[in-house]
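Many introductory courses stop at the sequence. We go one step further.
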Amino acid sequence: MSELKQTITEAMKDAMRAKDKARLGTIRLILAELKRIEVDERIELDDARVLAVLDKMNKQRRDSIAQFEAANRDDLAAVEREEMEVIATFLPAALSEDEINALVDQAISQTGASGMQDMGKVMGVLKPQLQGRADMGAVSKTIKARLG
């Protein structure tokens, strides 16, 4: 079992003991999604894959919040925000904009990228380093600005 998955399982036990229903529900959602992937793909998830799943779940929550706010459903948006907070506790600390810019510059020089056709190479280098620590959409825009 990956270290991160073990941490999430321990957090579930702690939430059960504390009778924290909101946190427990979100952690169970996380574990169910991890288990679903493991069963579907017949693999044991490593920490990098668990981070990718958590990042995807956070993105889904951001999208849901935008939809709920557009429909004036602040009650549902609040629930999604609470879930995002719980998911964020298992993600590594977010990188600052300066740190992201430095990593983008380093990846561009490392791959020798010179134009938009090399964007895939740059993203390939950056994605493992930034997974769960930065919004990949924003990173993509930064790369486009540098290469375009």
